[in-house]
Design a protein that fits this description.
Elements lengths: L7 E5 L3 H14 L3 E6 L9 H15 L5 E6 L6 H13 L4 E6 L2 E3 L3 H11 L6 E5 L14 E4 L7 E4 H4 L9 H7 L1 H7 L3 H16 L7 H10 L3 E5 L4 E3 L37 H11 L3 H10 L4 H5 L2
Parallel strand pairs: 1-2, 1-4, 2-3, 6-9
Antiparallel strand pairs: 4-8, 5-10, 6-8, 7-9
Helix pairs in contact: 1-2, 8-11
Length: 312
């Protein structure tokens, strides 16, 4: 019988309904340790403090199984990118690995066992940067397998190790030199000019910005320049509940997004080798980077590209 021993991390803020829905799935999985991450309310938002406090209190009271609850609460609003970054810094100072869910990422029942199994299997394989549960596009591997390897990172329900998080630098201090060193590799890796324009523009924007709006794009940048792979499940294990006007990055569902979740059975069927699934990567980069040309034109004109990148 499966027992979740890898710590779980739940990142919350001001979404009561989705937070409680995701917490209910964590409660079913009954991890032996749970990090509850919460940003502080914004002073400019009426009633937000009450919502944040309600979420914190109800989740605290809802932990009714043998579990070490670690509260990682902000005293002042930090914003999504810095709040999650600082929280994961805190987690990986204490843990070798962890499973991370944000408050709008509803996991399938098999998500936790899938993550724990692969965290253990690949814990010493530094070619692998993360274990992901959200497939995003409708893709079926040619092999009869339950997961594959990709260069694309998705933060909608994922897991990683301390060794991988150590590569993360929120300030991107090495960006100018690394983008020159890895120029050819990046261009080859992301397949198309549109994707190349998109990613290099967004990384440049993040590097130059004092108030960064995304930690996930930085983690993806680190994985690319360090030539790492991510594990992706062959079926979608995460339902994204966050497509609405309150979202930081996802205002509405994208037409290619997979919304239904499925389950995996165990033991997991592994690929023949640890190597990039070129077929999946060619599809994901082609489908998701349609805005690349527009972003390149805006960049050349000196216009704000933030909305094009982070509000797709």
């Amino acid at each position: 019988m499966f027992h979740l021993t890898v710590p779980a991390v739940l990142c919350t803020f001001n979404r009561y309904d989705t937070s409680m829905e995701v917490f209910a799935k964590i409660r079913e999985a009954a991890p032996s340790k749970l990090y509850l991450v919460s940003d502080a309310a914004r002073e400019s938002k009426e009633n937000e403090k009450e919502i944040v406090e309600r979420i914190r209190t109800e989740i605290e009271n809802g932990v009714d199984w043998p579990c070490e609850l670690v509260k990682v609460y902000a005293d002042q609003n930090m914003g999504c990118a810095r709040r999650i970054t600082s929280a994961l810094d805190y987690v990986f100072e204490r843990e070798e690995s962890a499973i991370i869910l944000e408050d709008d990422c509803l996991p399938a029942d098999s998500f936790f066992e899938y993550c724990q199994t692969l965290l253990e299997q690949y814990r010493n394989d530094d070619r692998i940067m993360s274990v992901g549960g959200s497939t995003i596009i409708d893709y079926r591997p040619q092999q009869d397998i339950d997961y594959y390897f990709t260069t694309e990172f998705c933060c909608c329900g994922w897991a990683t190790w301390r060794r991988a998080w150590k590569l993360f630098d929120f300030d991107m201090k090495d960006y100018p030199e690394k983008i020159k060193e890895e120029y050819g590799y990046i261009k080859k890796t992301v397949f198309s000019k549109k994707a190349f324009w998109n990613y290099t523009a967004q990384w440049k924007q993040l590097y130059q910005s004092e108030k960064k709006s995304s930690w996930a794009y930085i983690f993806f940048y680190e994985s690319i320049i360090h030539h790492k792979l991510h594990i992706m499940s062959s079926v979608n294990l995460i339902k994204n509940l966050g497509f609405d006007k309150e979202a930081t990055h996802t205002g509405k569902p994208l037409d290619y997004y997979v919304t239904d979740i499925q389950e995996l059975s165990f033991p997991l069927r592994a690929p023949d080798a640890v190597e990039r699934n070129v077929q999946y990567d060619s599809q994901i980069y082609r489908i998701t980077q349609k805005a690349g040309l527009i972003i390149k034109i805006k960049e050349l004109l000196g216009l704000d590209i933030n909305k094009s990148i982070f509000k797709r």
